[in-house]
Design brief:
Layout: H1 3-33, H2 36-43, H3 47-53, H4 57-78, H5 86-103, H6 105-110, H7 117-120, H8 125-151, H9 161-187, H10 202-217, H11 220-226, H12 233-246
Helix pairs in contact: 1-2, 1-4, 4-8, 5-8, 8-9, 9-10, 10-12
């Protein structure tokens, strides 16, 4: 290995060490309370070294979010959705997203910060562009399977694949974010007994949402031929009914 290659590898290793340290500090302190001095100490590097890789604390935070999205895309690809028909693909990807929110819970929570202008306005254009590219990469990946279903006549074609994937993403993401909010409020004992978000089983609701979204996209003729209308619904409805009965 030449000198240039070795220096580049060492640079990438330091960058990874900084990212790992930042994830720990951000998890413990949150974005507002965390400092670059704490991250530098955790990574065992100087603060100046951090600035060689990241222009600001916000850039470092956004870089972690980008890494989270790339990990999610890898999880999507690992379930090998191309081996299934388009409708089953959406179930597989939705299940993978649920798994991501559970196994990478902090990275999942971090992604909500992208909607905060107070943070996004402090991020450099290059880092912001990297995050946007990663986000669009996920949506494009999922939209490709939706479009395949439309081309094969399985999915309805009166909406675009882009509209369909946004509908799918926002619906499932909204449920998972409300679930996190509910858990946080319960942990802090500030969830009122009559609160709506405290009265539902979000895991059951997530499964129901998957079914209804796929059902919405699927052509009526395809549902009748394949029996897909009942493919996953009985299990979800049974769980939901049980939850209602216990209340």
């Amino acid at each position: 290995m030449g000198i240039v290659e070795r220096k580049e590898r060492e640079k990438q290793m330091r960058r990874e060490m900084i990212l790992q340290a930042a994830e720990t500090v951000f998890f413990e302190k949150g974005l507002r309370a965390a400092t670059l001095d704490e991250i530098a100490e955790k990574a065992e590097v100087s603060k100046g070294t951090i600035y060689l890789h990241f222009a600001s604390r916000e850039d470092l935070y956004y870089s972690l979010m980008t890494r989270g999205l790339l990990l999610l895309l890898k999880m999507f690809r690992d379930v090998k959705p191309e081996d299934a028909d388009p409708a089953k693909v959406l179930y597989k990807l939705a299940d993978a997203y649920l798994k991501f929110s559970q196994e990478q819970s902090y990275l999942f929570k971090m992604l909500a910060v992208v909607e905060n202008p107070a943070v996004s306005e402090q991020v450099s254009p290059e880092v912001s562009s990297d995050l946007e590219e990663a986000s669009d990469g996920i949506l494009t990946y999922v939209a490709g399977f939706v479009q395949r279903g439309m081309d094969d006549g399985i999915f309805r074609s009166d909406i675009s694949s882009h509209e369909a994937v946004i509908l799918f993403w926002v619906s499932l993401n909204g449920i998972l974010n409300l679930k996190e909010r509910s858990l946080a409020m319960k942990k802090n004992n500030c969830l009122k007994a009559e609160s709506i978000i405290g009265s539902v089983d979000f895991d059951v609701l997530y499964g129901m949402c998957q079914h209804y979204l796929v059902d919405f996209l699927t052509q009526e003729e395809t549902r009748k031929l394949s029996g897909r209308n009942a493919a996953r619904k009985p299990k979800v409805v049974q769980k939901h009914s049980k939850a209602v009965t216990q209340k």
